[in-house]
Write a structure and sequence with these properties.
The complex is a heterodimer. By secondary structure, chain A is mainly α. Chain A has two domains: 26-43 and 200-373, Cytochrome Bc1 Complex, Chain D, domain 2 (Orthogonal Bundle); 60-197 and 379-384, Cytochrome c-like domain (Cytochrome Bc1 Complex, Chain D, domain 2, Orthogonal Bundle). Helix content of chain A is 38%, strand content 1%. Chain A is built from 14 helices and two strands. A two-stranded antiparallel sheet of chain A has the order 1-2. The radius of gyration of chain A is 23 Å and the shape is elongated. Chain A starts with a helix and ends in a 20-residue tail after the last helix. In chain A, 45% of the residues are buried. Chain B is mainly beta. Chain B is built from one helix and nine strands. In chain B, the strands form two sheets. A five-stranded antiparallel sheet of chain B has the order 1-2-3-7-6, with no helix packed on it. Classes of the chains: A mainly alpha, B mainly beta. The interface between A and B is medium-sized, with 23 and 21 residues.
């Protein structure tokens, strides 16, 4: 009896410290780790590729026009909603809400749009294949701007600044409403392409380990480094959250519950169907692309794997963009990590992630690492502010 | 199922990594064709859609250019397929085939499985390789 108690007293602290305290062993990276770590660095970000479906994607005047439109509340039915109402610059272009609220309450969480121009697909379910065609949907959606293409076109030509800019950029050859509407999308896209993330604490750490051979560094704490190790190894987060933007821009089912009162979101299977039917897609007549430029749409993946699959979001600035997941299901990073740790069966389709068996201390460390990803924009300040007349 | 077993029994797989400048993967199909397959861009970057070339010869080095090829693949260790649905087109002018619209969305071990069809005869071949 007494012996049992002694054994208990001996092992209990060992067990507790194993679960809750950082291990005393220093972290060192092997060659493979270093390759993975560097692949996540912002210095690996390539120049933004041109969007062949949008001839105005890198037109500076179009960006200026798009900037005005992005903040202009007159583009809504009640003149109270602009893109920036939900994609707020002060919140890394999110709104802090579980579910979006414009003219009405929607069904999805507002994602950040920083760095999104690198993605071939837009929306959680990828129902848009270009940034300009994405920009058209909120203008007409009842729970967002609630306007329509004719009203938007009318506004452009009633406002002198707008009509002059419009004519300068696009010429005034076509008065077709759909052409004008798609040009407005193209200007909004040109503006959003300016929103690029910069260096985070993590990136500074990568610079330092790249320049000093002895791996000596002070930028990340022990727990942050331990969290990075979990991110690239045991946690397997890097499988999907890969590259300098921490996303593969592909679609995965991660076994999330739908929010009460909603059917589970079908995700990519539905998104791809919609993208193919969209008159504003890459192959449509409002696109500037040649057929062979539309590889993503032409060769999009299909099959059961895409049931309930949603687009992997970036993890840059993640600590500033709660709540999380396509319907804001999880309110904190800690809850997201718990979710991956358990990897529950999916409601529809099946969960690609496997249970992780992370100890409590490891979950804390992973969270500490995600908190090092605050990446202030490299974008010039003027682009982040609304316009004087708002 | 049976097809899967046949594939795993008969196939050779070759390893190459994206570090080499021209990673030409070579394999022999179930019916003995010699297949060379390689990416048209090197190194292969994850998350970028691109094309590959396929060259198929018999044991006497004659080009075989009249097959209908369908491609599948994925990551065996993660039990998922390719993120895209690539298609193979015959390029009768050069005798080779072009595999269009392939993409890898994770680092790790990938497989490409080719089904080669001619007059209702089905042959299969597989290559495995590592993407970093």
């Amino acid at each position: 009896m007494k012996k049992g108690l002694l054994i208990f007293l001996f092992f209990c602290p060992i067990y507790l410290s194993w679960m809750y305290l950082p291990s005393p062993i220093p972290i060192s990276w092997d060659e493979d780790d270093i390759i993975k770590i560097k692949s996540l660095s912002i210095s690996q970000l390539k120049p933004l590729p041109v969007d062949p479906s949008n001839s105005f994607s890198d037109n500076e005047k179009a960006a200026i026009f798009g900037h005005m439109l992005f903040f202009d509340k007159r583009l809504s039915k009640n003149s109270q909603i602009s893109c920036a109402s939900c994609h707020q610059p002060s919140r890394m272009f999110t709104d802090g809400k579980k579910i979006e609220e414009g003219l009405g309450v929607g069904i999805k969480n507002t994602p950040t749009i920083i760095g999104i121009s690198f993605s071939p697909w837009f929306y959680w379910n990828g129902r848009k294949d270009s940034q300009w065609s994405q920009a058209l949907e909120p203008l007409e959606s009842n729970h967002e701007h609630g306007s329509n293409r004719s009203l938007v076109a009318q506004l452009i030509f009633e406002d002198n600044t707008y009509s002059n800019l419009y004519n300068e950029i696009f010429g005034n050859s076509s008065k077709n409403t759909e052409v004008i509407f798609s040009n407005i999308g193209k200007a909004l896209a040109a503006y959003q392409r300016k929103l690029i993330p910069g260096e985070s604490k993590f990136d500074k750490y990568v610079n330092e380990i790249s320049s000093s051979l002895n791996n000596e560094d002070k930028i990340l704490s022990y727990n942050e480094k331990a969290g990075l190790n979990l991110f690239i190894n045991k946690g397997q987060c890097i499988n999907c959250h890969n590259g300098p933007l921490f996303t593969n821009n592909s679609f995965h089912n991660t076994g999330l519950l739908s929010i009460p009162g909603q059917l589970p979101s079908l995700g990519r299977v539905e998104g791809l169907k919609l993208a193919r039917l969209d008159p504003f897609n890459c192959l449509g007549k409002y696109s500037n692309a040649k057929k062979e430029d539309c590889q993503e749409l032409t060769y999009a993946g299909e099959g059961d794997e895409f049931i309930g699959a949603h687009k992997t979001p970036t993890l840059r600035n993640i600590s500033l963009t709660s709540p999380y997941m396509h319907a804001g299901q999880l309110e904190s990073i800690a809850l997201v990590i718990d979710h991956y740790n358990i990897a529950p069966e999916a409601m529809i389709g099946h969960n690609e992630a496997k249970p992780l068996n992370l100890r409590p201390i490891e979950k804390k460390q992973l969270e500490a690492f995600l908190n090092t990803l605050i990446s202030p924009l490299v974008t010039e300040k003027k682009w982040l502010l609304g316009l004087p007349k708002d | 199922m049976i097809k899967k077993i046949i594939i795993s029994i008969f196939l050779f797989s070759t390893y190459a990594s994206s570090e080499s400048i021209h990673p030409v993967l070579e394999t022999v199909s179930q019916n003995g064709y010699i297949i060379k397959i390689f990416s048209e861009v090197t190194p292969i970057n994850i998350n970028v859609i691109h094309n590959w070339s396929i060259d198929i010869r018999d044991s006497k080095d004659n080009l075989i250019d009249d097959l209908i090829i369908t491609v599948n693949g994925g990551m065996p260790l993660h039990s998922h397929g390719l993120p895209t649905s690539p298609k193979v087109v015959n390029q009768s002018s050069t005798g080779s085939y072009k595999l269009e619209g392939i993409k890898f969305h994770m680092a790790g071990k990938w497989e490409i499985v080719m089904e080669l069809k001619k007059d209702n005869l089905i042959d299969v071949a597989k290559v495995s390789f590592n993407i970093r």
